[in-house]
Write the structure tokens for this entry.
Amino acid sequence: STVLLTGANGFIGFQITRFLLEKGYNVVGTVRAESKTKYLKEQFSKFASGDKAKLKFAVVEDIAKPGAFDTVLKENNFDAVIHSSSPFFQTAKDIEKELYEPAIEGTVGILRSIHAHAPSVKRVVITSSFASNLNTKKGNWPEHTYTEEDWNPITREEGLEDPAAGYNASKKLAEEAAWDFLKKQEPSFSLTTICPPMVYGPPEQEVTDLSKLNTSAADMYSLFCGQREASNQAWIWVDVRDVALAHVLALETSAAPNQRYLISCGRYSAQQFLDYIWQNYLERAKDKKVSKGTPGKLYPEEGTYTSDNSKSKKDLGLRYRDLDTMMDDTFARFKELELII
Ligand code: NDP
């Protein structure tokens, strides 16, 4: 089977590429510039060389441009598409241009192109986000358990109010537009959306500068460097390797077509990262003046929301890595990157 994966060089995209190749798929990964393929070719050299290479690349400079994916879709005979590329940063100045356009137009654009030019595609999986489930108006919402039924009520206008809201709205509006496309166009492919909350785990994508890590890895690394106090943007998390695997399982499982999955391991607190650093990297913690926070006090008195991941376990057979495994692997990777870079 041949899969088109957009954003193959991203934090999550890298891991999706790995699972696809390990499972024997042929992969065409899209990136924004040719220069971004070098590291991936090296990492996946046993799949990326020779006439029969199982990993190839296509450059798509601007995913928001109409027909951006037409060429790559016409030139290959894809069985499935995984669309993971979308901006994830919380400092946008022009929310329409930097977030809404690539997120929404990128998503609808690729669906339109598949519908028009790639009749061989049977399944499409889109990386959405817990941002499209989360209701920020409800705050910590202690009595609530988030499921696939939850939709963020944020409007396009409300998302323009600040960059964090803008990111949340970009993901919600993109996912909504995808389901809307499916309903109106009735294409011959099915759709599955993957909604992960905070995605942590070892950054194995190309990192040339530790001050430019992807947003969620930077969230942990800044604590490891004593650059901020503990704070939670969301109270639930998942390991990057589990999110990536969920995308691939969604291509394979008979239950997945036309379903939405909340891919969450469960609750966590940034205080757990601080406690871990002080327990396992004591000298560094002192040296970098890592915040102690309030050791052991993980959640606000009132409590927080939780999540229900039973649908993903039942349908996809997903088993989630725990927080300790993730922290072991992530902080070790940060140390390794500090030595390499
Ligand atoms: P990365 O920033 O590492 O990856 C994002 C990918 O999308 C990269 O390939 C990036 O390309 C591409 N991309 C970003 N902006 C654009 C744009 N304007 N035009 C074209 N391509 C673009 O982040 P993640 O791996 O974390 O994000 C991948 C997906 O996962 C996104 O859809 C994100 O919304 C979603 N997600 C992430 C979560 C997390 O905690 N990490 C949580 C929930 C959802 P380039 O390298 O060239 O910038």
